[in-house]
Design goal:
The complex is a heterodimer of chains A (483) and B (103). With 483 residues, chain A is mostly helical. Chain A has 19 helices and 2 strands. Chain A has one domain (9-480). Chain B has a single domain, classed as Helix Hairpins, CATH 1.10.287.3510. Chain B has helices spanning 7-27, 31-56, 60-90. Classes of the chains: A mainly alpha (483), B mainly alpha (103). Chain A binds chain B through residues 129, 132-133, 136, 140, 143-144, 147, 150-151, 153-154, 156-161, 163-164, 167-168, 170-171, 174-175, 178-179, 181-182, 185-187, 232-233, 236-237, 294-297, 300, and chain B through 11, 18, 21-22, 25, 31, 34-35, 38, 41-42, 44-45, 48-49, 52, 55-56, 58, 60-61, 64, 67-68, 71, 74-75, 78-79, 81-83, 85-86, 89-90, 98-103.
Amino acid sequence: MLTIPETSWLVVLPTLIVVGTGLLILLVDLWSEGPDRDGLGWLGIAGLVVTGIASVALWNTHEVSFSGGMAVDRFALFFNLLFCLGGILALLMSMNYLENTDIRVGDYYSLTVFSISGMVMMAAATDLIVFFLALEVMSIAIYALSGIWRRQLRANEAALKYFISGAFATGFLLFGIALIYGATGATDFATVQEKLAAAPPELRGMATAGMALLLVGFGFKVAAVPFHFWAPDVYEGAPTSITALMAVGVKAAAFASFARVFTDALGPLMPEWREVVAALALLTMVVGNFLAVLQQNIKRMLAYSSIAHAGYLMVGLVAVNDGGGAAVLFYLLAYTLMNLGAFAVVIAVGRRGQPNEQIDDYAGLGFRYPGLGAAMSIFMLSLAGFPPLVGFAGKLYIFSAAVHAGYVKLAVLGVLSSVVSVYYYLGVLAKMYMAEGTTLLDSPSSRPYLFACLLIAAAGTVLVGVFPSSAYELARQSFAALG
Amino acid sequence: MTEMVPTNYYVFLAAALFGIGTAGVLTRRNVIVIFMSIELMLNAVNLVFVAFARHFQSAEGQAIVFLVMIVAAAEAAVGLAIFISIFRNRETLNADEINLLKG
């Protein structure tokens, strides 16, 4: 007789809620008409709030189910909360951003929520194939979203570039998974780890080749140098709210899987991957920070800045067993708050038919719009790593973990490269406060959702920065669930 | 009974196909041909999975191939939609002429 394996549905509960929300938005979109479509955005936000509550309720659960394919543990739940936070902020800024575009809102909100469902699955995946499917659920939705403003030539081009480079990366990732399957005869993390620990040299060689291909795939997804070339073009061309989701959600999800795959399944190969990841991290920090200095467009500048931040995060992965894992989780929280805030300011500065995306357009805004100027100052200083903001605490945890792990040179070079970053972040502030300009903005009071989003991000950036210890403790507990 | 073809022959063949696909992505200029090259890469991976499934005498690798095919089909649907919207606006699918974004 055929026996059906016992299944714990709790494992997929957060995913089901997010997917259900996306389907609901599609359905409601069919029956609602008219120009005022904020309801669909609120529906998405409500779904993400419920997902967050479910994740908190599951906090003490630790289960693996679906034949070892998916897990609910603190690591996955921490990332669920992060995606819910990022998703809610991105939806809030979208509700005001979409007014100035002619994007179809039903498609937009449902695809956004579907991409978040892929992220939630990625953090929970404990099987290489489940991970691959989750990655594609996320990526395919984002490909479509980056080109959703169909009449915009730049959005078309961004979608094309993201799609081609993303699909290309998928090929490498999948070949890596196939080689690891060949070396171990399994795809679930527990068995792969067990088999690799006892593998004879020739199988270990094949698994190492697979690991290298996986690294190429991950390199593309997190935009690590030398696999970063798509990022500036895509970030510039995509709708700004989607760029924000891409910079924060996609990167966090990719790092969640990166950490899970490389410390869990490929843990026995750590001597092989550690130095390679360290070299990539160094290259990513240096190239990202130096190229950001040259940018004239704020979205391109933030793209190179996000490349540099991927480098810092990879430093955390190199030191993963010496507190680096928890530091990565904390840094992703910090990065979500400050980077989404920065993108919200970019949206606030844009108007219909007048995106104001050049850094020169920011001239004089600091005095004429003091609230916006203060918010941008908080986000830029935090991204540059000034105390007492959250970016400083994040960098401190990452680089002290690297020193702890014996990577002193890497930490020193990382800190030096982040000194370069001060130049371009403060460049924006100098423009805002020390130059004369004529750019006019829509008044913040006419854009309440954007205002709320800015307020949450700024409050988070300051508060978590001043009191980092409880958030760090949360990150530490969450990462401990992996071991 | 005839002798079976060793598994590593299949893996080398797949690696060659994967390399041809990669070269196609890097050298071709028409985005549809680039996309075909990516499909070739994915199918090379499918060959690896099937070969290993035979090697281990397990159905798992065969099942994975179906999942990969589904994903490839979904990717194709979105990709072709992107190509069509570009062609409508620009009347070209040459990667060298799609160059608004740079810096």
